[in-house]
Design goal:
The chain has one domain: Rossmann fold (3-Layer(aba) Sandwich), CATH 3.40.50.300. The chain has six helices and six strands, in the order E-H-E-E-H-E-H-H-E-H-E-H.
Length: 188
């Protein structure tokens, strides 16, 4: 995960984005990497990819993001992308309760197919559609708390909290790395 001194970043973190179809996974990726929002977005077939380097506590972190398809037909393909991921965005749509009800299935999928130390952030997307909300902030926060997840609501359309979701999870990953390093270096 730590990278040599001849690269233009200190750490390389691989992320996956998972969740039901049409919750805004690809829009979150596009907003984070390119500061763009696309109203019409074709369904992801297999996996889309993006990357961005960010400054987290004076450390340059390159975040590679694998946006997985939400359809059942592609799950066997997308499972291979879970390996090596240190971060996961688990996305639901705050305006569609059924996507929230499927969160535990997606969390199980992440935990069964990736590292046990993966940092997962639960994301309630489409905060800009507050008037159509079917899932309360408190419901998302409670589910995250019960399952040891970070939690944020975002809007891929307005960019609200999109950057923060990646920064918060990357900060947690760095913290985990620092504590492991301290354990290794502690010979008392």
């Amino acid at each position: 995960m730590q990278v040599g001194s001849n690269s233009n970043y200190n750490f390389l973190f691989r992320y996956i984005i998972v969740g039901d179809m049409a919750v805004g996974k690809s829009c979150i990726l596009l907003q984070f990497t390119d500061s763009k929002f696309r109203h019409q977005h074709e369904l992801t077939i297999g996996v889309e990819f993006g990357a961005k380097t960010v400054d987290i506590d004076n450390k340059l972190v390159k975040i590679q993001i694998w946006d997985t398809a939400g359809q059942e037909a592609f799950q066997a393909i997308t499972r291979t992308y879970y390996k090596g991921a240190v971060g996961a965005l688990l996305v639901y749509d705050i305006t569609r309760k059924e996507t929230f009800l499927h969160v535990m299935k997606w969390l199980e999928e992440v935990r069964n197919n990736s590292s046990k130390n993966i940092v997962v952030i639960l994301i309630g997307n489409k905060k800009d559609l507050e008037n159509k909300r079917q899932v309360s902030y408190e419901e998302g926060e409670q589910l995250a708390k019960e399952n040891g997840l970070l939690f944020l609501e975002v809007s891929a359309k307005t960019a609200f909290n999109v950057e923060e979701a990646f920064h918060q999870s990357a900060r947690q990953i760095l913290s985990t790395l620092d504590s492991k390093s301290e354990q290794v270096n502690d010979v008392s």
